[in-house]
Structures are given as structure tokens and as C-alpha cells.
Specification:
Layout: H1 2-6, E1 10-15, E2 21-26, E3 29-35, E4 38-45, E5 50-56, E6 62-68, E7 71-75, E8 88-92, E9 101-106, E10 111-117, E11 124-128, E12 131-135, E13 139-144, E14 151-156, E15 166-167, E16 175-179, E17 185-190, E18 200-202, E19 208-213, E20 219-224, E21 229-234, E22 240-245, E23 253-258, E24 264-269, E25 273-278, E26 302-303, E27 306-309, E28 315-319, E29 326-330, E30 334-340, E31 346-352
Parallel strand pairs: 22-26
Antiparallel strand pairs: 1-2, 2-3, 3-4, 5-6, 6-9, 7-8, 9-10, 11-12, 12-13, 13-14, 15-16, 16-17, 17-18, 19-20, 20-21, 21-22, 23-24, 24-25, 25-27, 28-29, 29-30, 30-31
Length: 374
């Protein structure tokens, strides 16, 4: 029972495209919070299962979801005398629906309005106003976002069990980035002209662990399953702009995000340390290497300019709108805001979004969601 009591009800955390809200998939439903200030905006509980993945579309009323859940055993401290044994009652927190489906929830109607079934498990999903993108084990499928979604494109990928896919939300840039056909590759696709070949970037020698677009879709950050280096590329050309060193020890990098002006990068992993990197503009050369071009390029990788520690190694990190505050949202319910003093010392405030009441407007009163029609 103790193990079950300590288990977090949070199965997933995902920021919306503007990074001003986030949605939590729970063992028994979902919750939506605003970031500025931290307020609970919407809660939906399901008696028959959990939500393993959830995706917002800015602040509109449509949410994409995939079922998820865990099970745990609860020991009943009684004996069945006829058997002479202590039984265990296993309580299932089963998925709300099959993990081979994407379901679109309309929060105005409080109902699921679209169902997209697949033959294999859904690994990842992304939304923009006109597209639904679904990552499967070895392919990614693109649909129109309409009342009856139509399949538009299918792109083959390297085995993608992490569900890596990123979609630029801007109306004037329909860039989609996916794992390529070979290990460590990233393919850049313009959905406005998908038949025109885009850059295929040999980002890492190992398998990809995390990819991220900046908000305008012009820059791409990648990390491999080794987790020591983060590389930044230009999406239009595929040229490498930066190489950043998180550390010498291996880590599973789970989140990378750019600041709004793309001059900073924050990184979280399965370690509780959050790293912040500076991304200076290139002047056409890197004088730090000097004449020692025979040395491995990783020796010249830029290190983080700041870092701080949080309570939980499973987290999502991002920046505030002004780029001066790092926000970290942890699976244990901790919500951090961190600014740095002139001396470089972290100044943090901590809240818990799973405990107590955070207030906020209900959706019926015009809370987090705005109306969007299919």
C-alpha cells in the first residue's frame, strides 16, 4: 500500500504551443493548468481508465489523447480461512481506451468527437490548426484536422518508440521534423510542399532521444540516447549551428526547449539537474577551435551557462514569455520558477499543482479554452 500511496497519478505532462498552459494525463483523467499564474483551469475525471498522452492546441477546446495507465496491487489484511491464504486485490488503472487510438476531446461538448484507430501503438502526437500528426513505431501519419480527418501523408522513420515528432505551429511555416530512415538522422519536411526533398540531418551516431523546434520552426535541437551532447541545426539548410555539452556522464534527455527569442536553451533529463545554454549568433567562424582542428569537436562543445536542481528527475522545462525565467514542471507535482541573480545564483519559487486548490476560472466562464470550430 505504501508504494501505491507514493505513486504519482501523473502519466504525462505536455506544454501547449505557446508554452503558457500545460495538460497532465492522469491515471483517471486529465487536468489543464495555466502557467502565468499557475492555476488549475480544467479537470475531467474518467471512472473507467487513464490518459497516457495528451496534447493541447494553444488554448482552444480541442485536445488529443491516447489512453494510458498502470496497475498496482493492494493487500487486504484478511484471511480466507477456507484457503488459508492472504489474498491480494489488484486494482487496475487501465487505459481509458486502446493505446492504438487517438481520440479528440471537445471540451465545450465534454465528449470525444473524433476517433483515429491504428494497428500499432500510438507513440506520439502533435496538433496544429490544420493538421493532426501521429507517430507510430516506424512511420508517422499526417491527417487533416477536420470533422472527418483525411489521411494526407505517411512518412517512414527509423524505429521510433519514443514517439519523436515536432510540428511548427505557425500558420506561415508548416515544418515537420521526424527521425530519418537511419539511426541518428532527422528528416525535415515542409507539409506545404511534402514532395520537395528537405534536409536529412545526420545529427548523432546513436539513436535519437529528444528533438525540439523553436517556435518559428527555423531551428532544431537534438539529443541522442547517450545524452552528453545537444546539437542545434538550421532547419532550412540542415547546417549545424551549435554543439552543447550537458556533461560527460550519460543521461536520458527528456525535454529540450528554446527561449522565445531562440538565444537560450533549457534541458531536462532523468537527472534532477536543469541545464541552461546560451546560443550566441554565429559570426561566420568559431575562433575557439583555433588551429587544433585535429581534435574531436566535442572537446570544443559549449557548456551550460547555468544550472539548478529540482526535486524530481522526471520533468518538463521551458521559459517564460520574457525569456528571463525558467519554468520546470515535475511529475511529482512540483512547479518551479527560477530566475538568476546578477551573481548567477538561482532564485526559485516552488508550488505544487497536485495539492490544494489553485483556483482559476471554469471553462464555462471563459477560462483556459477559446472556441474553435472544425
Amino acid at each position: 500500500m505504501a508504494a501505491a500511496a507514493k505513486a504519482t497519478p501523473v502519466l504525462s505532462i505536455k506544454l501547449n504551443q505557446a508554452h503558457d498552459c500545460f495538460i497532465c494525463g492522469l491515471q483517471n483523467g486529465f487536468k489543464v493548468f495555466s502557467c502565468h499564474p499557475l492555476q488549475q483551469k480544467e479537470t475531467q475525471f474518467f471512472e473507467d481508465g487513464g490518459i497516457g498522452k495528451a496534447e493541447m492546441l494553444f488554448r482552444c477546446n480541442f485536445l488529443a489523447m491516447v489512453g494510458g495507465g498502470r496497475k498496482y496491487a493492494v493487500c487486504i489484511d484478511v484471511f480466507i480461512f477456507c484457503l488459508g491464504k492472504r489474498p491480494y486485490l489488484t486494482q487496475w488503472r487501465r487505459p481509458k481506451f486502446a493505446t492504438t487510438k487517438v481520440m479528440i476531446w471537445d471540451d465545450r461538448k465534454k465528449a470525444f468527437v473524433i476517433e483515429l484507430p491504428f494497428r500499432s501503438e500510438v507513440r506520439g502526437l502533435r496538433l496544429r490548426r490544420d493538421r493532426i500528426v501521429v507517430a507510430l513505431d516506424a512511420k508517422t501519419v499526417v491527417f487533416s484536422f477536420t470533422k472527418s480527418p483525411q489521411q494526407l501523408h505517411v512518412f517512414k522513420t527509423f524505429p521510433n518508440h519514443r514517439g519523436l515528432c515536432e510540428l511548427c505551429p505557425e500558420d506561415d511555416n508548416s515544418i515537420l521534423v521526424l527521425p530519418g530512415l537511419e539511426k541518428g538522422q532527422v528528416q525535415v519536411i515542409d507539409l506545404a510542399n511534402p514532395k520537395r526533398p528537405g534536409p536529412v540531418i545526420a545529427a548523432h551516431s546513436g539513436a535519437l532521444a529528444c528533438i525540439c523546434l523553436n517556435r518559428s520552426g527555423t531551428h532544431l535541437a537534438t539529443a541522442s540516447d547517450k545524452g552528453t551532447l545537444i546539437r542545434v541545426f538550421e532547419t532550412a539548410s540542415g547546417n549545424q549551428l551549435h554543439e552543447l555539452r550537458r556533461g560527460s556522464g550519460e543521461a536520458d534527455i527528456t525535454c529540450i526547449n528554446f527561449s522565445p527569442d531562440s538565444t537560450l536553451l533549457c534541458v531536462s533529463s532523468n537527472h534532477p539537474t536543469i541545464h541552461i545554454f546560451a546560443l550566441p549568433k554565429k559570426d561566420g567562424g568559431d575562433s575557439s577551435k583555433g588551429g587544433s582542428t585535429f581534435l574531436p569537436s566535442s572537446l570544443f562543445s559549449a557548456k551550460s551557462v547555468a544550472k539548478f536542481t529540482v526535486s524530481c528527475p522526471s520533468s518538463v522545462c521551458t521559459f517564460s514569455d520574457d525569456g528571463k525565467t525558467v519554468i520546470v514542471i515535475c511529475h511529482d507535482g512540483s512547479f518551479y520558477r527560477c530566475r538568476f541573480s546578477a551573481k548567477g545564483e538561482p532564485e526559485m519559487t516552488i508550488q505544487n499543482f497536485l495539492k490544494g486548490s489553485l483556483g482559476g476560472s471554469s471553462t464555462a466562464e471563459g477560462g483556459v479554452f477559446g472556441m474553435n470550430e472544425l
